[in-house]
Design a protein that fits this description.
α1 packs across α2. The chain is an alpha+beta fold. The chain folds into two domains: 61 residues, no CATH class; 151 residues, Beta Barrel (Thrombin, subunit H). It is elongated and about 130 Å long. The mean pLDDT is 77. The strands form two sheets. It has a six-stranded antiparallel beta barrel with strand order 1-2-5-4-3-12. A six-stranded antiparallel beta barrel has the order 6-7-8-11-10-9.
């Protein structure tokens, strides 16, 4: 490309500007205007698109900047609202849990009122579980500081669940009725037949030491007899769910469902020993 070709656009631009100013001056003089005013108007006409573009650019940029600032503020506000909402949800969950706990404790209180022998009992929370094929034990948050001792009976709103087998100052172990090492002297509420309820290591117990002709039916309710010197008399223990005669005809297998669900126990009721006993 020659030097003249490179200069051609500039020359054309200058020619156009010169022609434009010449026409403006000629037209202005025809209208009787002064040369200074004509030049000023021509300059304004020439620079208007540039000034308009600059103004539009700054105006648009300002608006975009303001919008960006507002978006940042909205984002921060939304983030704070999300945090506040999470805190509110957490608080509501805590209040709901407190509500259900109060309902359970209220049921324990009503259970206490229904049995005169339980008037000296205390409520305790379950803080641990030891459950496997060999043992079914709960850990509660009360101990010798609350006058709890080994063999103190433990209840839920359904009835007996077990007894204390070990005690520390602030906690204790509760052996559940379903544990293989557990036994409780009971009677059938319907006909007063006496037997021993033994744990099987699963969710059921078995009623043992009955005569083979003992009248036991599905649905019979078992209550404590009070003869083992551990559990007060007359407290619900469980319900007969199956009865099966053994092949030799000399005995029968009686399965009993306790009045509690091992997996849902959260609060219990314990009768402590009298002070200095």
């Amino acid at each position: 490309m020659t030097a003249f070709s490179r200069r051609l656009p500039w020359l054309l631009s200058l020619a156009l500007v010169f022609t434009f100013f010449t026409l403006c001056i000629s037209f202005g003089l025809q209208k009787g205007g002064s040369l200074l005013n004509i030049a000023e108007r021509a300059t304004l006409a020439m620079t208007y698109p540039i000034q308009k573009g600059i103004d539009l650019t700054f105006s648009t940029g300002g608006k975009l900047f303001d919008s960006y600032i507002k978006l940042v503020g909205v984002k921060e506000r939304n983030h704070q609202l999300e945090k506040d909402l999470a805190l509110i949800k957490n608080r509501l969950a805590q209040l709901e849990e407190t509500h259900f706990e109060n309902l359970r404790l209220h049921k324990l209180l009503n259970f206490k009122k229904q049995h005169d022998t339980l008037t000296q009992g205390i409520a305790a929370h379950v803080i641990g579980r030891q459950t496997d094929n060999l043992s079914h034990i709960l850990i509660i948050d009360c101990g010798s500081n609350q006058n709890l001792k080994v063999n103190n009976p433990v209840f839920t709103t359904g009835g007996v669940i077990g007894r204390i087998i070990a005690c520390g100052p602030r906690s204790a172990k509760v052996l559940l009725l379903v544990d293989q090492n557990s036994a409780c002297d009971v009677i059938i509420q319907r006909n007063r037949i006496r037997g021993t309820l033994q744990g099987t290591g699963n969710k059921f117990c078995q009623l043992a030491y009955l005569q083979r002709t003992a009248d036991v039916k599905v649905g019979d309710r078992l209550i404590t007899s009070g003869l083992d010197n551990i559990f007060p008399k007359g407290i619900t223990v469980g319900t007969v769910v199956t009865t099966t005669q053994c092949h030799n005809g000399l005995s029968q297998t009686i399965n009993v469902k306790p009045e509690f669900d091992l997996n849902t126990i959260e609060e219990v009721y314990v009768i402590p020993s009298p002070p200095n006993s």
